[in-house]
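An instance as discussed:

___
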Amino acid sequence: MKALIQTFPSWLKVSIYFLIMWLATFIAGIFPALNSLFYFFAVSLFASWLLIRTDHSNLSSLGYYPRGRRHWKQLFYGTLFGGVMLVITAVITLATTKADWHFNKLTDPMYMLIAFAMCVCSAYIQEFVFRGYPFQALLKKYKPWVAQLAIAVPFGLMHINHAMQLQDIATVMLTTGLGSVLFGLAYIKTRNLMLPAGIHLGWNYAQVLIPRTSGTYPNALISVTGGQTSYGSSFILTPYFVVVTAAILLLLFMDFDYTRPDKAPQKANVSLQNDLDS
């Protein structure tokens, strides 16, 4: 079987990967107790390990854990960058809609801590699932824009539910698709998942603390009031597209020396990785 899969082109291997993920989603629908981020991470980890072996490589090549100070910095600055992006987007949205907002006196520190932990898990797992094996396998054989578009589609579909109408589906595909391009570019620039995971984390967590519309996250740091009818789609989408596009252009002109060897690899991570790859 391994010898046969080795002959498959990259697009077919990636298709097998997403077929495994789809089957996992189908099984989770039958057994709701399985429907969690950690379940999908475990399935993705197994599928990645299974397929990457056919390329005579190992899981460590995916860059899914920090190997030194440089990667920790990328995670930190990526988180800061994503948070600033959301803040700018929120400021533009709240200013153009003239919504009323105030600091929420009911904010619970425990809620903020739990929300952060959930955002960490969500952002990291999503980046591993989509910018891990499938994206990197496509990058090795095809041009970056091909890999970007190929991954943006399943990434967008993941954010869709059956209750959405056609217009909402189109909006989600456009917004998540642009976000996928940003995260993909962050990986391309660093060849490590820390920067895209950080940007993803920073955006998601800041979005929990600073909502852009009323009626969301009642325990958030900022409380937005006003009729929901005052929010047209252009007031929400335009700031998002402007800020994310600007972030993509900024990353395009930034230079990351990912070929420089790490000065202080983490022994614990190396030991763990050896156990996984054996």
In short: Residues 138 and 147 are 5 Å apart (CA to CA). The mean pLDDT is 88. The beta strands are 100-103, 222-225.
